[in-house]
Amino acid sequence: MDKKQVMIGAALAGLLTMGVTGQAMAAEKEKCFGVATAGKNDCAAANGSHSCAGQAKADKDPNEWKYVAKGTCEKMGGSLKPGDKK
């Protein structure tokens, strides 16, 4: 193989590794409701008030969520279900 083929192979291997690592990381996270701060939510509100990330209007709204490491949500004062008050 010439140098160009080796570099392309290494780049592809790196991309595949990142894809597998990314999937494993996503599997180790969970939605945590009630911990997002205003403008820092990860996606649509559970009550349908908006449909996009970064649109939370208030801190710790029980219908707004963020991805957190699996097993840490309730320790942070959040809930695994939307709308639950603390």
In total, how many beta strands? 2
> What is the N-to-C succession of helices and strands?
HEE
The count of helical stretches stands at 1
Report helical residue fraction: 25-40%
Query: What is the residue-mean pLDDT, rounded to a whole number?
Result: 85
Q: What portion of residues belong to β-strands?
A: 5-15%
Q: Distance between the terminal alpha carbons, to the nearest Å?
A: 61 Å
Strand order of the largest sheet: 1-2
* Uncertain spans: none
Shape, principal axes of CA atoms: elongated
Biggest beta sheet attributes: 2 strands, antiparallel
Structural class: alpha+beta
C-alpha Rg, in Å? 19 Å
What is the number of independent domains? 1
